[in-house]
Amino acid sequence: MILAAGKGTRVRPITHTTPKPMIPILQKPVMEFLLELLREHGFDQIMVNVSHLAEEIENYFRDGQRFGVQIAYSFEGRIEDGELIGEAMGSAGGIKRIQDFQAFFDDTFVVLCGDALIDLDLTEAVRRHKSIGAMASLITKRVPREQVSSYGVVVTDEEGRVMSFQEKPAVDEAASDMINTGIYIFEPQVLDFIPSGEAFDIASDLFPRLVAADAPFYALPMEFEWVDIGKVPDYWQAIRSVLQGDVRQVQVPGIQVRPGIYTGLNVAANWEKINVTGPVYVGGMTKIEDGATIIGPAMIGPSCHICAGATIDNSIIFDYSRIGPGVNLVEKLVYGRYCVDRNGDHFDLQEAALDWLITDVRRQDKISPSPQQKALAELLGTNFVLKAS
Known about the structure:
Distance between the termini: 39 Å
Largest sheet: 8 strands, mixed
Shape: globular
Strand content: 25-35%
CATH topology of the largest domain: Spore Coat Polysaccharide Biosynthesis Protein SpsA, Chain A
CATH architecture of the largest domain: Alpha-Beta Complex
Helix content: 10-25%
Number of strands: 33
Number of helices: 7
CATH class of the largest domain: Alpha Beta
Oligomer: single chain
């Protein structure tokens, strides 16, 4: 089961038009990496609950044939006035809804959140789950003490049985440095603890019930690579880690045109006349004019246009973005009409009347600034600088 129904509010504005499982890690949706992991460990029947922007997920993955698995979808919502309205049932409620439709979960099953890159030995995790006779297991991971306030902390007894949880505790109040990674292994009996027809969450609703019932509910601490993209800062760090070669399961795509510089097909760039420091990835059919500066780690998506004198410094540029002459992007993410800093704060370029500096490359009407915009550019100086706050 892949949980893919959430709205992804903490990754806005990306999730205005892209559901979280479809957020690209160097042009490949994060959920595709999860399918590869599941297939590698013999899981080839996969349920996905969808709601927000469901068609984006379904149209890409379809029935899973090209990924070597079988996929079916459970849509949570309704149609009203011809428009799809998402009504997510919660992580546990979504599982119960599938089971009420037809008893799909008739054996040990794994539940994954659709917004993380993981490199987990699922075969070993299931083996350990069965060996201790667990009804429910959650995979935990140790993090540095100073990071516990960003996660749900799991408290266990000496045998690993789950006793309680702390949701994002203060560092000095945390009872453990083991966190919930959002990876679960369940037996079908778990479904008896989930009510039908109502929103119900795994962590906040189901798990307390299991603890209260003294069910065989265990934490399985494991060492593995886990890159969360649940928030903009997480996504920012994930891209940087991939470009720096720190994420084993993600290889930088394209061809290496010079050390640390990777490109897709047919990139128009004279690298002898561009100031570039890797690691950098540039998507296919992107144009980079002479005199531009690119400082890595940086990602520039496909079909972009980086004008002369522009600087892309530790920034992420999504597809079809035109970065105008003299624009200096420092630790920024450009996504459509939005400019986002690494902490997630963002503004609308159109509302700020700056969409002539940074715009969609297909908007020919925005390439030449109006007289008022030219005057503003002169007031700002030769470089329009968007630095991280």
